[in-house]
């Protein structure tokens, strides 16, 4: 059985018209599907309004207690519920999740060395039987990037990583297609040239580009996760592309960057 | 089959020690259970930090677009996820909900006359088959008071009303006990005397007290809802009491105020 896992990034979520069009496209995907969303831009905005300045290291947010509250509110509260309500209006039986809900995903607080990211977690386990059960019931999980450690602590968890970990965990049960949708048309050969999209990227090419420093900050965790999913199970198909076009790949069209396996 | 529906109020939620003790007590309730929470105090605090002043009419918040965003963040985001994570640590398989998630509850935006409450909704329907399915799976819904209209609009919905509507809708499928837990020891004969708790309150007594003006603002919707649930199905048992003691009623102990039927 086919399962589409779609990640939508923060730079689309903060633009209502783009988000609405994206959700319309998402609603037309047939079969089992999961939507994973970020929301960093809106979290930073709220943080600024509240006088909490976002601190980023290696493209990832450092999460102190105040920031954890902000991301819980923005990701699992307003963004998640607005998306779920919009999908319900589009006749998708969406149901919002954090990792804590139904124990969907447990995460482990990251060690404070070499960089202390604060209340940031890495996914440890995915509750695949819960997801199977949701799929059987025709529900569509909408996953916000908030994890929990099973001991009552919420943890900020990277949405790109969640998407890859879901793809990996579910690849035994489903034929998984993973889509990273954001504001670029794919992985760019030259970050200054929007039209320099690489149609297919191998791990070797990626390594070379990384060494040359030609991959921008936010793209690093995305590609790291994409190749991780591909490494664990080469049958997971991964695309990276623009929110307005990436889902055309569900119709077999060549769009954005397709991730190739290690060779 | 027995179902306990428990409402916990905003004046407990904002006190971590009280909330933790309450959740411990809640975790010991045997059988099917649903937790409904408010969070008005924390929403007002965030609103104040953001320069949005809360406006109340008849004990209910007036919800403009900014306020809707705030309550979505606070109720469905931070409070809901903190409670779910805490219950997971207590080995309750909690799963957070707004009305939009899985289309749990649809609400209708309240008519602007006689008072325009803004984005406030009244419950129209409850997805009882979804709840039955969650109960069969051993999940415990934790419901935040955010509804949706099915057309993509989130609506602020009173948590006391949600609790009563859930009790009414589920009373055909379950033997429902409904607990309103808050910071008072029950309905007070004299609002200035904390120890003047009425052990059992009939509808006639309530009407008389209301006429005399001896029921405080926040208690009005609670009692209105309690008697509504009782009127629709006299087999729904309703208690109102302090968060630290009200759940003792699950063990058959007499605590707080028990709501009697119409006679």
Order of helices and strands of chain A: EHHEHEEHEEEHEEEHEEHHEE
Report the CATH superfamily of chain A: Acetylglutamate kinase-like
List low-confidence stretches of chain A. Answer: none
Q: What is the number of independent domains of chain A?
A: 1
Query: The CATH topology of chain A, please?
Result: Carbamate kinase
Q: How many helices of chain A in DSSP terms?
A: 8
Spatial separation of the terminal alpha carbons of chain A: 27 Å
The greatest interface between two protein chains, and residues involved on each side, is: A-B, 38 and 38 residues
CATH architecture of chain A: 3-Layer(aba) Sandwich
Strand order of the largest sheet of chain A: 5-8-2-1-11-13-14-12
Report strand % of chain A.
15-25%
The helix-and-strand class of chain A reads alpha/beta
Q: Total number of β-strand segments of chain A?
A: 14
Biggest sheet record of chain A: 8 strands, mixed
User: Percent range for helical residues of chain A?
Assistant: 25-40%
The overall average pLDDT of chain A, rounded, is: 92
CATH class of chain A: Alpha Beta
The whole-angstrom Rg of chain A is 17 Å
- Give the overall form of chain A: globular
Assembly category = homodimer
